[in-house]
User: Fold these one by one.
Assistant:
Number 1:
Amino acid sequence: MRDEPQARGLSLASAVLAAVLANVALAAGAGAGVTPVVEPGAGGPESLAPTLATRDTAGLVAFVDAAGSLAVVDPDTLEVTVFGSGGSRAFFPAWSHDGTRVAAVVAGPGSTWVEVVDVARGELAAVVSASDREPVYLSWSPDDGHLAVLAGTPAQDLALDIVDLAKALGGDPAARTTLEHGQPFYWAWSPTGRSVLVHRDVLGGSALVGLSPIDAFEVARPLPSPGAFQAPAISGSGRYVAYARRDLAEGRVVVVDNPELSEAGAPLVEVVHDGLVAFAWRPGHEHLSVQGVADTRGFQGPVVLLEVPGGDAHVLSSDEVVASFWSPDGRWLATLSLADDEEGGRRVHAGAALLRVQARLPVLALRFVEVESGRVVDAGPFQLSRAFLSQYLPFFDQYSRSHSLWSPDSTALVLPVVGRGRGPMLTVVGVDGTSRELVRGDMPAWNLR
């Protein structure tokens, strides 16, 4: 189905698209297919709508509105700006690190492309498209100079393309580099923005984990024996790399020195795990959260915190966690876990629950864990949108690095909550357990600036 490109593109189980990107067409200019429309919030007069040319974008939430258009909302005033002229549908918008632009995959009749919108100016900045490509996911480089775009073609595997935005806006045909192919394909940007830590062909005979420059694919120091995990992770300081490897029948999450900086020696920290595992670095610390250590069915399970390089570990959550997200300040870990089944009071296996999303949305419990004190805030059960459950949640370890659900001040999370008899509503849930509704919409991402 065209309305679920991310799920098809990143899935471990499906054979997705890839090959060579022939030509990248980039068009720049104000309003080229994008019409900014400012809608005042329910509580404010139209005169409060901001002037787009000088708009302050700090703290805005990007999302997809009920009509499928890319939009942003001010959580305080509820003013909504819609970008789009109809006839297409956007997916999972991602903010640039400087907080001025949003990039999103957009699908229209017979084609899919990437749009970059300058939210501060209220105009379309660039369109990235090609007749033989179907983008499925994207992320900004740390310096906002490049977009890494995962795309597919009828060749049935995935390609990772690097788009130089400055060259693209200047019409340079060398703006796009096809870095490498694989199926599936995950990555993390190096803090330098000049390389990516890739994980290609998960659990396949050609599985590869290692750092490559973005101008040409070359993994000079591949990490040994890639195992059962999806997205690799580089610590905020850039000193360490986390991945999972297989040693005979045993899986291990390991932390090694960043091979971009030095020769990776013996693992500094390691922990045994079963099944698929997911992990993320705690902002501002050399601590790694590891989810699913003791689960054989997927990365559902308790979350453990590992200290690097000492190796001390303790349990952050003993719930059946299906996704977890660090706050920008590293104080909180938000967890989504399986709530009791309404019919029998039993916990439902995560994989089975997610496979049933077309028929019945599972209920997930949101909790906030304050790391230093161990305090847990139970924010209550929520039914989340089908797109979030089927596309974001199975790949949360990748999406959470490019699409923040957290507010920039680390006090709240934004989620697409489904109520009775209506579409999803963007809902802000505070670390104090309170919640409030914003506007109807889906696929939110909070601007961290």
Number 2:
Amino acid sequence: MTATLYIVRHGNTFDKGDTVTRVGGRTDLPLSVSGLKQAAALADHFEKQGVSFATASTSPLKRTRVTAETILASQSAAPDLKTRLFLREIDYGPDENKPEPEVLARIGEVALHAWETEGTTPPGWRVDPQALIGNWQELFRELGAIHDAHLIVTSNGIARFALKAAGAEAAHTLKLATGAYGVIDLDGEVKQGHHSASLTMATAAITVRDWNIRPAS
């Protein structure tokens, strides 16, 4: 039996012509006009695929909650939306809500590249990668016992650690685009490994089926 996690990044918080900033967990922006369209496109996409969610989780931030609520609005018997604090975007420290050129000038191209490709935290950003990986693994264990489809809406800085928790970061680009999603299948009962922080499965494995899929809006 399989549990399937649909890990969604919220829609845009900026529109064309806006000054784009690095929005972290301390900045609670709403979805922009284009972000609302992306959320609606996700709802339409999942409805056309016949995906019905048994559970739904999101962060306390407006941009993730509205994205999740829009997706669930197209479902006839939508589950209650559960807030999970670990899904809140990371804290970008001195770069919080700063324009991207300023962020790049402070941390440098090498540090930004390492974040985007390896999840290595730039200096000054407040994030605990191992704790986030553990949070994702715990969620895998919880939802792996429910053999159905599960909606999880979060932010880019958090979603990448789901790949690391699944041990699949080498096979996929870490970054999720706004309004995009990934699919992780949990085949069998997910258990904690006895001698490490890794996950083991009673049967089969954790499989990242898709990553960074963005429906047209």
Number 3:
Amino acid sequence: MIRTIRWQLAVASVVVAIAAAIAAQTAVNLRARGIASGFDFLSRPAGFEIARGLLSFSSRDTYTRALLVGLVNTVRVSLLGIVIATSLGLLVGIARLSEIWIVSTVARTYVEVTRNTPLLLQLLFWYTLTQGLPAAPEALNPLPGVYLCFRGLFLPAPIWRHGFPWIGLERPALVGFGFQGGTSVSPEFAALVIGLSIYTAAFIGETVRGGIMAVGRGQAEAAVAVGLSRLHALRFVVLPQALRVVIPPATNQFLNLFKNSSLAVAIGYPDLMSITNTTLNQTGQAIEAIALAMVVYLAVSLSLAAGMSLYNGSVLRRGGGA
């Protein structure tokens, strides 16, 4: 035991010494090139604009708020993508096991095409499709007050005033070459959510298929024998048992979706990575900006993994899932 502890201390000391040497040499190189170090830049005005989102932002706000806006945008895309990818992946996984040939073939084709195509290419494909929509004056109007053009999807929004929960709807109106009023979904946001969801759903679908196949065939047959329909047998007997197999690999896919959201920089969506790039280009604080982004990504990923681990533990304690 003592010998093991000594080896662990020795390895830890070597790692700390190497990290300290790298940090010291980096500081020397920065001073030699006249590059300032530290996080003081976070309190300075950013000097750039960010498209409207959940948090308001102007060029007078600090870099700290800019990075916070990017984090909120990243988390919003990731959570919505996880919900859509999980729902679609569940349907795809079940469809892959369908006894109807056309259903299983379509599901298998979707999985093979999506998994074997680069995600970046898929994001560019969806974004290009949005740019093929008509201009604002010729926008599509599928429903009253709903407009779709290459600038995005514009929808009516509830009006909140003087403490009343809802006093009416504000409809978007064409003003010049764009729409004002209501709420909108930008083409960058839509392309990113669609691309991430469809890509991740293919992997989750295979995970769901594997989980269902891991449940003994006799379970479904016994459920049908006692009078349950095939749908009810799948819902109440097979899927709860499959959860124990599905959750761990599905967690990996959720983490991949969150990290893959950094590809938003390719289509101009202001996520955390995109704003980090703008920040380091303007301030020259490349090491600090990248290190800060890495810490934030790591913290969110570990939090998501911990939450899924707790849920998986509760499923195992119940002997299945609901």
Number 4:
Amino acid sequence: MLVNRSVPKCTVIPELAYADVGEAAAWLSKVFGFTVRIRIGNHRIQMNVGDGAIVLTERRGGGDDDGVDVAHAVMVRVEDARAHHDRAKAEGAKILRPPTDFPYGERQYNVQDLGGHFWTFTQSIEDVQPEEWGGESGEL
């Protein structure tokens, strides 16, 4: 799997929403010893947790109109996002966004599972320094 400095190396990455991601990052650092990996504006922070990672996201309302849970989500790194998408779609998964290439070097798609949970499947397609797309590096 290609390494991209703009995404954690671990395979499964929980995403947790908070009203104030800066406050949450400070608390998680102080209380649990997590460290900031990448800060993205004031709406998203990747944090190191041992050999894993979590992503803090800005809380948006109480969910969307489709019943998708946006308070917590899971990101999973895959070798081929398009092939993964095609399989999920063929098996009847509810695709929320088809595979899309982003300037931070990832190809991602979003899907809702049978329980209403939000999933992002991501493929590293380029190694991009976070500062190249507006991120701010911490402890990579």
